[in-house]
Amino acid sequence: MPPQRSRLQAWFTRVCSCVIVWACVAQLFALGPIWFSPRISAPAPSTSRFFFFGNSWFPNFSLRSDSLHLPAPPSRLPSRTYRSNGYLQVSCNGGLNQMRSAICDMVTVAYLLNLTLVIPELDKTSFWADPSDFDDIFDVRHFIDSLRGEVHITQRLPKRFSREASNNILTMPPKSWSDEKYYLHQILPLFKKFKVIRFNKTDARLANNGLPVELQKLRCRVNYQALKFTPQIEALGKKLIDILRGRGAFLALHLRYEMDMLSFSGCTHGCSKEEAEELKRMRYAHRWWKEKEIDSADKRLKGLCPLTPEETSLILQALGFDSSTQIYIASGETYGSARRLSALRAAFPRLVRKEMLLGREDLKQFQNHSSQMAALDYMVSIASDVFIPTFNGNMAKVVEGHRRYLGFRKSIILDRKKLVELLDMYENKTLTWDGFVSAVRLAHERTLGQPACRKVVLDKPKEEDFFYANPHECLKNAIECH
C-alpha cells in the first residue's frame, strides 16, 4: 500500500475516533441531569434492607438557608370572573393543623360553588383556648392575593348582614367526607333562600378521594402556597432552624405525649394511678369528647395510643440513631415533664426544644398562643433532616404530606400496633435486643415517606389515607395510581 494512502487512512481513523468520543461526551452531559437528578422516583426494592439506618439517615452536606423555598405550585386553574352566589363563613375547630386542612377544604368548596369566602374564624374554645385570629397566624394579604382570580375572599362580611338579620344567615355543619356532588346538589340550592351560610364545623368535610383533579390541586395550592405564616412567625421560625442547622443535622420528633391527647384517647400506659385519674377527670370535663370509659390496655394493643417517651427512646435506638443525634421535640409540654423525659434524655443528651434555643424575649409575643407556638414547630418539622411522629394526629399527617410535596423528605411513620407487640416482647425478655432491632427496622423500611398510592376504602372514608398526608395528585415523581 502506498505510504500516502496509508497516512490518509490513519488520519481518517483518528478523525472518526475523535468524533465518536466527543459525541459520547456530549451525550453524557445531556443525560447527566436525568441520571443524577435529586428527585426521587418510585424506589426499587432494597437489596440491602437496612442501608438507610444509622448515620445515613442524615445527609453529608449542610442544608442551605434557602432550602425552605417551595417548588412551583400545582398548575393554576384558569382565572375567571363569576357572579358570587353568596357568602360562606366558616368556623374552624381544633388545633392549628386541623384548622389548616379545614381552611384548604373550605376554599375549595367556595371555588366549586362560586361563593365569596369570608376570612375563616379560628377555634378559641378548644383545650388550648388560644385567642389567636387568622391574621395572628397567617399572612392575610398573601392569602387573598395568591388566590385572586380563582376564589373571591373578603376579610369581613358586609355590614348589611348583621347578626340580627338571622333570616339571611344559615348556620350548619356540612356532612363529613363529602364529594362535590353533595355541595352542588345539597348546599348550593340553600343559597337561593340564604345569602350567607356559616359552617360551624369544618374538619374532614371534604372527601379524600374521588374528587376532580383540579379540585385536589387547588387544595394543594392553598396549603403549600396561600397559607403562609405571618412575617413574625416566619422570621423566628427561620432563626430557630438556623440555630439547629448550625449544630448539625437534626431529627424533629413530634412527641405527642401531651395531657390533652392522653386524656382524649384514654391512654395511660406508664402513668401513675393519680395521673390516670387526673386524665379521666379532664375527659369527663370536656362534654364534646364523646368517649368517656376507655380500656387503655386494649387501645394500646390496637396501636391507638401515642408512644410513651420511654418507648420512643427504645424505638429510636433500634432505628440506628445514637447518642450524638440532635433531636428537636416539636410539641408542647410532655405529660409528667422532666421525669417522663429522663430515659429519652439519657439515651439522647442532645435533646432540645424551642424554649432552650430561643431567648425569653424571642418567645414573649407567642406565649399563651399555642397555635403560634405550633407554627414554629411546624416550620422546624418541615425543615428537619428526618421527621418522626409518635402518633398519627393532625400535625403528623399534615407535616408528612408537606414533606412529600417538597420531594419526599424522610419521614418515619411508625407502625404503633406492631411496635407495641415488639416492645412488650422485648420487655418480657422473649425477644433479644438484636431481634428487636431487626424486627423494628423490617417493619419500617416501607414507611419512610417515599412515593406511595393513597389508600381508598369504599364507603369507609375514615379508614382511608388522609389527603393532606399524601396529596398524590400534586406530587412530582409520584408513582402512577388508579
UniProtKB/TrEMBL annotation:
GO biological process, one term: fucose metabolic process
GO cellular component, one term: membrane
Alphabetic keyword roster: Carbohydrate metabolism, Fucose metabolism, Glycoprotein, Glycosyltransferase, Membrane, Signal-anchor, Transferase, Transmembrane, Transmembrane helix
Pfam families listed in its UniProt record: O-FucT (PF10250)
Subcellular localization: Membrane
UniProt entry tagged with the keyword Cell cycle: no
Domain of life: Eukaryota
UniProt feature coiled coil, ranges: none
Membrane spanning stretches: 12-36
Mode of membrane association: Single-pass type II membrane protein
GO molecular function: glycosyltransferase activity
Keyword Membrane included in the entry's annotation: yes
Pathway the protein acts in: Glycan metabolism
The family this protein is said to belong to: Belongs to the glycosyltransferase GT106 family.
Protein name, UniProt field: O-fucosyltransferase family protein
